[in-house]
Design goal:
Length: 304
């Protein structure tokens, strides 16, 4: 099998589009790029721009032989649909041959979340005897207090901070802008990190400029802290305290939303805080909350 030159060029243009215009996270952009690369390799010498619906459907049948999870198949179909939607927008094709592809039904699963005690245990076990420790505590406090995505946190610049009003501007999926509200506690940790720890993060303790475009969270070389490093930080803390569950940065977001719902927050407010395009994405947290109530009831009521 080969790689058609036109298709390869389309793929590179598509990569720039999903990163720059669609503001996909690094992880998602890599997955979409890999999905389309596999697809055009399968097409061999046939340009992706000449393909019809039957050919795309043939590819979907082909990948289903490999026993991928339904979620993986769904993402691959989504990648192809987005790719052809882009080509159609650029007028490289007249119609989208993947427009009518159906996504497999995803198995319903409730988002996993941390209890308040588990969050406090994680936070209290962040060592703050180094500048990086101050940074890590500020990061986790923000994830817990603001419910932001890890990519949003990594992408924070100083121009996004309005700490006098306890507000932070973030850019979510599709470069959609929204305001994150920050608790006083999280704000204090963030301000302490900026004033005392951030200048000492780098190896040579060089003075780092604080301009509107400068990253808030940096690594020891002075560059922006990437999402994978945040995952590593959390994994190391969780491993140390031997918490009996896998904890991801996104779990803090789930925990944030669940905590608000359990304490009576309006669903529309939670939707705005999370930056969900549809209320249906937020409603899942009501199911999580109900499930939690049932568990508490069954454990504590004498006649349960």
């Amino acid at each position: 099998m080969g790689l058609n030159k036109i298709s390869k060029s389309d793929l590179e243009d598509f990569k720039s589009y999903i990163i720059v215009e669609k503001n996909f996270s690094e992880h998602t952009a890599k997955a979409y790029y890999s999905d389309i690369l596999s697809y055009i390799i399968w097409l061999d010498d046939e340009p992706c721009e000449n393909v019809n619906f039957s050919k795309v459907r043939e590819y979907i049948h082909f990948i289903q032989k490999f026993n991928y999870k339904k979620t993986t198949i769904a993402r691959k179909i989504s990648s192809i649909r987005t790719f052809y939607k882009y080509l159609n927008r650029e007028q490289k094709i007249d119609t989208n041959p993947a427009e009518n592809l159906n996504l497999p039904k995803k198995p319903k699963s409730l988002p996993k979340f941390l209890t308040d005690d588990e969050v406090e245990k994680i936070l209290s076990n962040v060592k703050m005897d180094t500048p990086a420790g101050f940074r890590n505590r500020a990061i986790l406090e923000l994830l817990w207090a603001g419910g932001m995505r890890i990519s949003e946190l990594s992408g924070l610049n100083f121009g996004d901070l309005n700490l006098d009003e306890n507000e932070i501007r973030v850019f979510g999926k599709g470069a959609k802008e929204r305001i994150i509200l920050v608790s006083n506690k999280a704000k204090n940790y963030l301000e302490n990190y900026i004033k005392t720890a951030r200048p000492l993060i780098t190896k040579n303790y060089q003075m780092l400029s604080i301009s509107e475009d400068a990253p808030v969270f940096i690594n020891r070389t002075g560059f922006r802290l990437q999402p994978r490093m945040v995952r590593k930080i959390i994994n190391e803390i969780v491993a140390k305290i031997e918490l009996p569950k896998h904890v991801s940065p996104h779990m803090f977001r789930h925990s944030f939303a669940t905590h608000l719902i359990e304490n009576g927050a309006d669903l529309r407010v939670v939707q705005e805080l999370l930056g969900h395009a549809s209320i249906s994405n937020t409603q899942i947290y009501t199911h999580v909350s109900t499930q939690h109530l049932k568990e508490v009831y069954n454990e504590t009521h004498p006649r349960a």
